[in-house]
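Input (BTB domain-containing protein):
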Amino acid sequence: MEKMRNVHIAQGLFDIQHSHFPRKDVFDKYLCDDSLTIKFRIRFRNSITYDESQANPDGASAISKQSIQEDFGKLLKVPKFSDVTVVVGDKEFPAHKNILSARCRVFAAMFDHDMKENKENVVKFDKEDPVIMAEVLHFIYTGNVRNVGKLATDLLAAADRYHLDALRFMCEETLIAKLSLENVGEILKLVDRYETTRLHKSAMTFLATYRSKFVATEDYDAIMESLSPALLLKVSKLLMQRP
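Output:
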């Protein structure tokens, strides 16, 4: 039996299709009892792999959403590509018809028809507060509100004027969180004036819970007198119910 020998045959990175892999006749002369033992020295290289199971689509979506919000917010600060100007008093806001129209049906109505605003590319609001308009435009572009905590009441009115349901929702949630005996009178006025389903329900629940304390407040009579007949009737019936 021929003694086994250590022979270096080839070196490289091989697979079945590798053109440099040794041919069969090369191995024949190294056979020992019709057997051949092949030893491999394998060297691994570092590589980067992507494991889909470790992916976080929610995180990626949140990052993408934040990026879009930031980018659209920048459009309000750069007048270079604007095609319409929103004027409130002496304050001018460069804006974009397509964004305003897509996000707000009030603006869409202005630009969809042969109106003065569409022809002159200027939209004027003589009675609007520049601070509130700045917040409204920021919301239209980004979907966020920066000062809803301080401006919830005014922004709720703006949401009603411009038919911005998502902004209305944010304002209602803020006011619901702050509902108290000290401000329930103002909240009832808002409920009376605007379409606020969630705020209306929360105010009624609050009055049902604190009816005796509400009736005992100094402003009780003034609050009740300020309500519309329909809301006055509803609140009166609620207060007359037994706990």
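Residues 179-242 form one domain.
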